[in-house]
Amino acid sequence: MNYIIVGPAWPFRGGIAAFSERLAYQLIQEGHDVKLYTFTLQYPSLLFPGTTQFSTDPAPAGLDIRRRFSSVNPFSWLRARREIRRERPDVVVFAYWMSFMAPCFGTIAAGLGKNVKRIGLIHNLIPHEPGLLDKLLPPWFVRRMDGFLTLSQSVADDVKSLLSTRLKPEKNLQSSIFNLQSKKIAVTPHPLYDHYGVLLPKAEARSALGLDADGRYVLFFGLVRAYKGLDLLLEALADVRCTMYDVRLVVAGEFYDDEQPYRDRIQALGLSGRVVLHDHFIPSDEVARYFSAADIVCQPYRSATQSGVTQIAYHFCKPMLVTDVGGLAEIVPHAPVGTGPSAGSVGYVVPPDPAAIADALADFYAHRREVPFTAAAAEEKKKYAWPRLTQALYGLL
Predict the structure, then answer these.
(1) Which of 145, 167, 183 is the last residue of a domain?
(2) Integer Cα distance of 177 and 237 in angstroms
């Protein structure tokens, strides 16, 4: 079939772009023709909190990526739509993650013709920090889709709520699929981010990052925003038990919030010698170092849908500590802290509370859980192969 993916792609950076490119490779591997249509301008500078929107990585080999539309120029949306129509696609997949893109994507989708299947690949429908426009804009996009592919049940629930119609479940393709008249919603787990290289020896990775070879390191990876709860993790790190075990933290990612309050809190909690800040966007070719150097990956989020960080952690077979918000708990098999790991546990799921996070870290180091959690993660990751997602996509057509 002839597929077109609309959304972020190289030269833009970030998890959504990486996902779209990896999906394109999978579809090509399965025999389809694939083109990616992406932005000439993704965010106006005024709305982008980071240092740059652009990747320093080389262009992905073997992908047809076309920069055709600006998020703020309606005339470019119409031109892109005309070009996509000329390509005569069977399926157009819209990689949707924020309300700001709803007018652009909705307009492109609206005029593609009756013979084109329009699938919303919904990474996030309702933002973690919603505003007025997040109530007004998403319906413009959602109503123009013929089906939806979501990566967690919580996002599927958001889609169903917006459509305001009771859906009847239908078993199919190892994923939950819901019928809505002529539309369907498929729920399938976020696949592995398996393009970041191989696991390195821990000592080698730590040496490359300037970390102590024998230290106990927790990794917080990705963009830093208030909803991601880095402040909760800092409070947990100051707990007497984490101090006793000399638990240290590596923060690897660009700050989208003001960084100074975090630095002030590190100082006030007496953590200056135990927190390593690598406060910049981590290029793809450096990701393996950070995950290989860590004992455990922590996501102390206050809110979430699903997260690509968990799927990088699975790729590197790393234990995880996540909070019980959104869809995070769905993909981290666990047992209650203090009961010992049950068969298949890959880590911890706790409330977004510093004491609970500290409980889990103390249990992890006191009882040397790294080896059994790592072995379980190596087995659990098999569930998140990319063909599972493409099969769910085919079920929507």
Answers:
(1) 145
(2) 41
The b-or-e profile of 26-58 (16+ CB within 10 A means b, else e) is bbeeeeeebbbbbbeebbeeeeeeeeebebeee
Asked if residues 318 and 294 have their Cβ atoms less than 8 Å apart, the reply is yes
Q: What order of strands is seen across the sheet that includes strand 183-187? A: 65-70, 33-41, 2-6, 91-96, 117-122, 147-150, 183-187, 175-180, 168-172
Which pLDDT does position 53 carry in this prediction? 80
Measured between alpha carbons, how far is 178 from 171 in angstroms, rounded to an integer? Answer: 9
Q: How many domains does the chain have?
A: 2
d(CA 104, CA 39): 10
Q: How much is the pLDDT for 164? A: 67
Residue 224 and residue 333 in one domain: yes
pLDDT at position 126: 82
Cα(238)–Cα(243) distance, rounded to whole angstroms? 6
Residue among 180, 141, 176 nearest 160 (CA) = 180
- CA 128 to chain CA centroid, nearest Å: 13
What pLDDT, on the 0 to 100 scale, is given for residue 48? 67
pLDDT at 63: 98
What's the pTM value of the predicted model, to 2 decimals?
Answer: 0.84
Number of Cβ atoms within 10 Å of the Cβ of 305: 26
Q: In what order do the strands lie in the sheet with 275-278?
A: 275-278, 247-252, 216-221, 296-299, 320-323, 347-350
Residues of the chain with pLDDT under 50: 165-175
Cα 211 versus chain centre, distance: 26
Give the pLDDT confidence score for residue 61 in this predicted structure: 95
Query: In this predicted structure, what is the pLDDT of residue 180?
Result: 52
Element (H, E) at 148: strand 147-150
* Pairwise CA distance, residues 132 & 79, whole Å: 29
As a whole number of angstroms, the distance between CA 210 and CA 318 comes to 20
- Cα separation, 251 vs 263, in Å, equals 12
299: containing domain:
202-383
- Please report the pLDDT score of residue 335 as a whole number: 80
Q: What whole-number distance in Å separates Cα of residue 146 and Cα of residue 170?
A: 17
Six-digit token string for 276 = 């390593």
110 within 8 A of 6, measured Cβ to Cβ: no
Phi, psi (degrees; rounded to nearest 5) at 305: -110, -85
- Residue 208 within a domain: yes
